[in-house]
Amino acid sequence: MTMTAERRDALRAEAIRWHVLIADATADDWESFVAWLGADPAHAQAYDEIEAADAVAGAAILEAVPAAPIAANDDSPVTSRRWWLGGGVAAAAALALAIGFGPGMLERSDPWRVATDAGETRTITLQSGDRIALNGDSRLVLDRRNPRYAKLEQGEAAFTITHDPDAPFVVQVGAQRIQDVGTVFNVTRDLQGLRVAVAEGSVIYDPDGAAVTLRAGQALSDPSGNGAILRSAVDPASVGAWRDGRLSYAAAPLSLVAIDLARATGAAIALDPALADRRFTGTIRIDPNRDRLFADLSQLLDVSATRGDKGWTLAARRRAAP
Amino acid sequence: MSESGLKQIFLVMRPALTRYLLVRGLSQDDAEDLMQDMFIKLGTLPEGPIGEPRAYLYRMTHNLLLDRRRSTARRIRREEDWSSGGTGVMSESDDRPSAEDVLIGRERLAIVTAALKALPERTRDIFQRFRIDGQTQKAIAGDLGLSKSAVEKHIYRAYHVVAEAKAGLDDDDSGDATFGAGRRHRGMDDDHDG
After folding, report:
1. What ipTM score was computed for the predicted complex, to two decimals?
2. Domains along the sequence of chain A with CATH
3. pTM
4. Radius of gyration from C-alpha coordinates of chain B
5. Where does residue B187 rank: exposed (0-12), middle (13-18), buried (19+ CB within 10 A)?
6. Most B CBs within 10 Å: which of A54, A62, A114, A142, as the mutation test of the B interface?
């Protein structure tokens, strides 16, 4: 006997209603669900159909949401650099990527996303005990079916990972992969490209290609995300220091400092392009009092910091005529 | 809620949880088997407070059922490969997809993705919040200033088009056993720092 289309649609609608309900159900809801399932074998069948749809829907909806172009990859000259960073502007200049999960996606992965607003941080503890701290204005995709995988779509995250030689933890960032070898490390993806710094243990950057090993106290940047890397040294104690409200730098360009500040404070920050390549060495403490923070920054970075309608503007100081 | 407390509640609820497995189509033997697995798993859970232990135990039963269905689907597929003259080199523990699986998987995903792309942006946004971000119907309604029933309508439309697209695929290939199951749970703890 075949079911009429109307009957099938009505059953499907009921099954979807239950599916939505049990995502956030009380024990009483569960009991009602069991009663509904038991009332007619067609109910259980309709629910099975929705559950099977749900399995494929996770990957499909991530692919169906349009991805913005990757601004980090454009080689625009310094003069065309944007002034405004953070706030809605950073979101508009989104680093969103089309999510391309690996093969066998359909039945073997179940992605979910964690996102933070600028100025907000969040810590995720995986069942394995591994911890991921997510900085502000960041997006991370995790996979319920594969606890040894994370994809940093945008922003910054610090990973504290227990090494398992049989199941290395892999962080996907754009087209690049980072594989842990037992580790505390920090990954950033923003307008300045991709950066990795290691506090403890070591990681392998691009394990299928260049396979660059980074040990504690080492860092690299990959400005265009294509494997053309620059290596540098880093103070291991400063790696992921944003988790404690500190930003530490050794000869970092102010363009990078401004992006970090926007992410950490949630304030939109406009940086005078003339300052973009000026270097800064030191530690900024993120004072929750914004006025005080920017007053301090003005001294520390030797810039003028003024608050406007959109946010804060950092510009070169006007010097008195000699 | 201590660990032993949760186990005690489990023992009281065991007949009700078994009933859930039976109405989902499991045999009595398989249901008992799964309950036994669950009892062992409860002993390995880290200590920690659990808000609604009865709902938690239903959710855990639901997730274990999904896991079981997925691995059964994989086993059936392997056995079919075997009987239809596969290479004969197979490992029971090998969960990696074959090249053919990958191709079929990508094609199927593309078809379902196209169906979702045809939906209004708002419907996709709401569906992503529900399915990927794990927001509840109530939270989405609050965020977007909609009624709960309006949110449900959007989610309904998304699942409906996915189910339709998938039904079309399954008609083409009735031998499919890989779309075993989906699940929604919060398998990870997640706390706000600020």
Report:
1. 0.78
2. 5-70+77-109 (no CATH), 112-238 (2.60.120.1440), 245-316 (3.55.50.30)
3. 0.54
4. 20
5. middle
6. A54
